[in-house]
Amino acid sequence: MKNKELITALAARLEWSTQEVTDTLAVLGAVISSRLVEGDCIYLQGFGQFEVKKKMERISVNPANGKRYLVPPKLVPVFKPGMTVKNKLKSLEGDE
């Protein structure tokens, strides 16, 4: 699902205009981003948790020339789905 499809589906379900949904999603993204930058975890009941994890430095090999490179440590955003989402996905596995 692309962003435009998500906005259309939310607008229909909430009975909002597409502009209201677009603005709401923009604000939600901004709030989540700013909280992650500050190092906080964001938990959305029934959906999941957003958090920041530190990836350790590692050695990477370029397959084209075989040279080794040191990749420095970095912070990455991580999403962990909640039990509600996990259970819905498990029920889909049983249907196939």
Write the layout of secondary structure elements.
Elements: H1 3-14, H2 18-37, E1 42-44, E2 48-55, E3 58-61, E4 68-71, E5 74-81, H3 83-95
Antiparallel strand pairs: 1-2, 2-5, 3-4
Helix pairs in contact: 1-2
List the keywords.
96 residues, alpha+beta, HU Protein, Chain A, three-stranded antiparallel β-sheet, two-stranded antiparallel sheet, 47% helix, 28% strand, extended
Q: Care to describe what's here?
A:
The chain is α+β, with helices and mostly antiparallel strands. The chain folds into two domains: 1-40; 41-96, Irregular (HU Protein, Chain A), CATH 4.10.520.10. The chain contains three helices and five strands, in the order H-H-E-E-E-E-E-H. A three-stranded antiparallel sheet has the order 1-2-5. A two-stranded antiparallel sheet has the order 3-4. Strand 1 (42-44) and strand 2 (48-55) form a beta hairpin. Helix 1 crosses helix 2 (18-37). The longest helix is centred in the N-terminal third of the chain and has 20 residues, at 18-37. The protein is extended and about 55 Å long. The two termini are 21 Å apart. The relative contact order is 0.11.
